[in-house]
Design goal:
With 304 residues, the protein is of the alpha/beta class. The protein is built from 9 helices and 9 strands. The strands form 2 sheets. It has a 7-stranded mixed β-sheet with strand order 5-4-2-6-7-9-8, sandwiched between helices. A two-stranded antiparallel ribbon has the order 1-3. Strand 6 (204-208), helix 8 and strand 7 form a beta-alpha-beta unit. Helix 3 crosses helix 6 (128-144), helix 3 packs across helix 7 and helix 4 (86-100) crosses helix 6.
């Protein structure tokens, strides 16, 4: 039996603030980590987002293989650039930081809007130099925009206004280098979660954090990509989970709990009827209305 070793290297943390990030639920999610007996040697996270669970696992375990993916091309580009071109990225971010921080509020707004416009200009894939700039712009915008949101309009343009941070850490050099080191042995793919099927087997732990089902008809005020994830897609994902479960993989899925707003809504209870559903308390930090923030229940669905 191959035993998964506990990582002795430094702790790494997400390099982006990401709406729906799982930092606050890590204590609950880590209860499902199946690495102790040595049978599970692989990890897959096909909706990687900010990667809170990914970086927690990379900080704690040395696994044989790790796979991450997301449909957000700009996000995946940032992961790849951190992996492959860390020094050039740090140079760009350091420049942004040294230029931005001394400015007053009005000057910062002009600088921010200029970088946002440039990001939208280079949002289509270009050559390697443009991809490095695109990753640096994404991280800069994430660190300086309102609430660290990633939101695009119907044309796919990033449209979040500037935030009010006094001294944002635009270039966290120490963590970025640590993240780069950890990503060297990670397969990074831009694409649909279904592409992970070939990687997933009986030796794999899979964490799925899809776009959450809105708690109300008007709650879905942000879009993280131009792609839509409605009830039909949630049902398809549940079938995918059933298929991967039959392969022998250990799986955890997170989502919103419809019962927060409608006690009779059994949508997830029905489509994940074959699996265990645990309701855990979380805090909704990002919402367009302040009264919609606060303690709510979220779902952790598992076959382990």
């Amino acid at each position: 039996m191959e035993v998964v070793s506990v990582s002795k290297t430094k702790t790494v943390k997400p390099f982006l603030k990401w709406a729906g990030g799982k930092g606050q639920l890590l204590k609950e999610i880590e209860k499902y980590y199946p690495f102790r007996d040595g049978k599970i040697t692989k990890y897959a996270e096909p909706f990687v987002g900010g990667g809170a669970v990914l970086f927690d696992i990379l900080s704690k375990y040395d696994l044989k293989e790790v796979y991450i993916s997301d449909v957000n091309a700009e996000l995946i580009n940032a992961y790849r650039i951190i992996c492959d071109d860390i020094e050039e990225l740090i140079h760009s971010l350091s420049t942004y930081q040294s230029e931005y921080l001394p400015l007053d509020t009005e000057e910062r707004k002009i600088y921010y809007l200029d970088k946002r416009a440039r990001f939208n200009e280079v949002k289509v894939n270009g050559d390697e130099d443009i991809n490095i700039e695109k990753a640096a712009l994404l991280i800069f915008l994430n660190k300086t925009c309102f609430n660290g949101l990633y939101r695009v309009n119907k044309k796919g343009f990033f449209n979040v206004p500037m935030g009010a941070y006094k001294n944002p850490m635009i270039c966290d050099e120490t963590n970025l280098r640590a993240v780069s080191e950890k990503l060297q042995r990670v397969t990074i793919l831009c694409g649909d979660y279904k592409k992970s099927a070939d990687f997933i087997d009986e030796n794999t732990f899979v964490y799925l954090d899809p776009p959450y089902r809105p708690l109300t008809d008007t709650a879905s005020f942000t879009a993280y990509t131009e792609n839509v994830f409605q009830d039909e897609e949630q049902i398809e994902l549940a079938k995918f989970v059933d298929d991967m479960s039959e392969k022998g993989a250990k799986i955890v899925v997170s989502n919103s709990d419809p019962k927060n707003s409608n006690e009779g809504d059994d949508f997830f209870d029905d489509i994940y009827a074959k699996h265990k559903i645990k309701r855990v308390e979380a805090t909704r930090m990002i919402n367009s209305k302040s009264d919609a923030r606060g303690k709510i229940k979220e779902l952790l669905i598992s076959n382990c």
